[in-house]
């Protein structure tokens, strides 16, 4: 099966409105990139990456919403409400939003089974105040998993849930999908940009260690390639959601790793309220 021909061809791109904005790419480096999620031991830097800025067109994806595919471009869109009243209430998110997202992803992907396994809240003001579980938007181009860590994270989640024979499940195709949505006002500050996965070359993906207190994960940092095709959804509302393919076990032409990043939108009002958003990650099992 081959899905390598993206709909986002040059004629389509030229017809889409865009903003020009700076994105932060990894500067090529000899050593392996490392980032500590906590304060590291004395003398150890929190990270060793250096980023370089590239000013690029980021195109408005709203005119092509109906044509986007998780399996081709690696990202897609849905207009969908949530019954959650307070996304900062962890219990409400886990008991209501997780179930909503599992049902939504089942409909969107046709999967046989969907398991949501974690979520992050983004709000720069609350993060700076040290609120537990709230982080700042990430403004470096990256993906959430690698060809290796997609499997290891899935196995760890299934083992923690007491699943019988996780390896049997993982012998069949599965993916990890990020569901991203605003949780308060319209997004005007630090919107999310996503890169057409078909425009990312394997050489652009650099494995990086993400060090936690109890484990080490892997993500991909991304080096610059002028072939990258970037998109965003301006003025996203709380009743809108994006799906981003973070990993796919299939190696048959389907999108596997859709890079993404927050960015400074030059059209944002100077007094725009900080972006408030939630992203959750889900294992999507297709049974084939």
TrEMBL record:
The entry's protein name is Methyltransferase
Q: Which GO terms describe its biological process?
A: methylation
Which GO molecular function, any one, fits this protein according to its record? oxidoreductase activity
Native organism is Hassallia byssoidea VB512170
- The answer to keyword Cytoplasm applying to this record is no
The UniProt keywords, alphabetically, are:
Methyltransferase, Transferase
| Entry keyword annotation includes NADP | no
Which domain of life, per UniProt? Bacteria
